[in-house]
Amino acid sequence: MDYKVYLDERRTLVDAKYEEGRLFNKSILTLAAGAFGLSLTFIGQIAPKHETVYMLKCSWVCFLLSIIITLISFRTGHDACKRQIEIIEEKVKAERMKANSKKSNTQDKESEPKNRLTFITRRLNIASLVFFIIGILYLICFGSYNLRL
Predict the structure, then answer these.
(1) Which of 11, 48, 132, 136 could form a disulfide linkage to 66, CB 3.0–4.6 angstroms apart?
(2) Average pLDDT in the 11-24 region?
(3) Computed over its alpha carbons, how large is the radius of gyration of the chain?
(4) How far is CA 145 from CA 63, 98, 105, in A?
């Protein structure tokens, strides 16, 4: 495989990965906000049994947590990209310095810096999805208990 073809394909896959993450966050945000709003709209019409209101409140808490965590992950994702750019620039600068000094440092194998913000963003996305799913489950339980004939 030609190196230019490799770089083009890699760039395409990286762009697709970031777009997928962006769409995931937007989808969770939209769905959680929609479910929260819908449950608020119909509470008076479908909640004749007051002993089940705790299920609805639990779903609201889960939806709100999902929304808040998603918004935080937008910020950490942005910061993770900025940090990754810094890591790459530092690596390129170090390689240029090594090339200019023409020393063969076989001992000087530095570990590549890790981008903790990427790890944090992934965990936030997982947490957001988990809270969204739990919120949906609470809402389903609430609805099915109150809509029994």
Answers:
(1) 132
(2) 80
(3) 24
(4) 20, 69, 69
Highest averaged pLDDT of the listed ranges 23-27, 86-90, 102-106, 127-131: 127-131
Q: Which pTM does this prediction carry?
A: 0.74
Side-chain-facing half-sphere of 63: CA atoms under 13 Å:
23
CA distance 40 to 32: 12
Band the pLDDT of 24: cuts 50, 70, 90: confident
* Number of residues written out for the chain: 149
Listed residue (32, 64, 39) closest to 142, CA to CA: 39
User: pLDDT-based confidence at 49, cuts 50/70/90?
Assistant: low
Which residues make Cβ contacts (< 8 Å) with residue 126, sequence separation at least 6? none
Spatial contact of 139 and 35, defined as CB atoms under 8 Å apart: yes
70 with 29: CB under 8 angstroms? yes
Domain ranges of the chain: 29-101+113-146
d(CA 56, CA 136): 10
**Is there a contact between 77 and 128 (Cβ–Cβ < 8 Å)?**
no
